[in-house]
Amino acid sequence: MRSISNTSQRKKKKRGCRGSCSNLDEVRTLSGSMSPALKSNPDLHACKPGQKFRAALLRCRSPVVAAVILSFGNVLNYMDRCTVAGVALDIQKDFEVSDSVVALLQTVFICSFMVAAPIFGYLGDRFNRKAILSCGIFFWSTVTLLSSFISKEYYWLFVLSRGLVGIGESSYSSISPTIIGDLFTNNKRTMMLSFFYLAIPLGSGLGYILGTSAKVAAGDWHWALRVSPVLGMTAAALILLFVPEPKRGSADQMGGRIKTRTSWLCDMKTLAKNRSYVFSSLASAAVSFATGAFGIWIPIYLARAQVVQKTAIAEPCDNEEICSSTESFVFGAITCITGLLGVLIGAATTRLCRKKTERADPLVCAVSMLGSAIFICLIFVVAKKNIIGAYVCIFIGETLLFLNWAITADILMFVVIPTRRATAVAFQSFTSHLLGDAGSPYLIGLISDSLRQSYATSSLWRFLSLGYALMLCPFIIVLGGMFFLATALFFLDDREKAQNQLSQLSRPSTSVKV
Asked: Would you say residue 336 lies in a domain?
């Protein structure tokens, strides 16, 4: 009897410790006196410091806090990616490589990124997502830091390190949007995804600014690669501590839960038959083609334009320890501002147009893409005579181009059921990179090298050849606009199919066994 009594007392004490611990503020009434009911409860006692920390941690794990932290991680992903582009001239000078060879850095990065994306998509639909995210960020942060110590005799090793960074960043881009998709729904999800995808232009712009500022401050471009790793490791810790692991589909099912899970092969077959998903993925590839090429080549193109206009005395890297061009910094600032405007305008326009038509999402993307192509064409017409005019065209063209990032993600959330969203995001990423920025920087560099073979020493021809190569981008953007128009034709049917599939795979959570 005594052992039974001791056991019950230990259980009661344990239960009181977990569920009824409190501090002084929690047991007093508004008048400041002790509540009689609480005072008479023998199981109530003060929390230990560790329990207070855990309780505070749980209170901080709100959906909004999670979305902010995930967006911060996305900023770092793109900041690290574009830091290399921001010091591309310095890398080209230090390693003594041509246009096409320096573009290999981006091509190798994207190729490893897109190959790893389907793998992480499969893992993200089946295992703990925030653990995968944290490990991925820690991995690419470590590799980026180590790559800053590679000497110029080992360019191949530097290229390889960018491939490893691509694997780490792929885990984040494939999985993090699905967590936000499971925390919010409808217009609130659109708003949070807009905030999340705002990180793409913001992080990209900050990457250029960071790269330029760090190399100038330290007098060495290698220091540009030593800032983002520290921030990346901080983000990994924040994700582990404050981001919850929501049940897949919890926001969409209004309390229901999925009772069956389809196979990976079935998921892929269904996605291949989803016309809205296929066409929006192809449109996304067109955006990636243009942004990948611009990210590497526009700062270099504008630096060469300054030489042609005689506003720069000589090439930016001539007789300099570090390249003196400011175009990367200016382009980064423009990208930050246009990204903010584009995402906000895109979300507001879509919300407004949904009142007029249910096909608003793909139609807004199509119109913005077609408008963007016009102003991007004008960049290469104006740049030879007026650098300010070129910046204005870049500003308007990028704003229109960035309108569709968050909307494209929302289209996917509408037409794909929750249990295959990570796979869908991963394969959309794979497709957009395979057909987009995996090859566009190298292709533009290759065309530029081929065009100026006969006039290698001419500053004018170095400028013109790169401009002619970049003229390919507006035509690809127009093609992307056509794909978004095709998406609009099938959007309503595919959304209805996804809703029907979700209702078949789920059951109410109110059924309790007694």
From this structure: yes
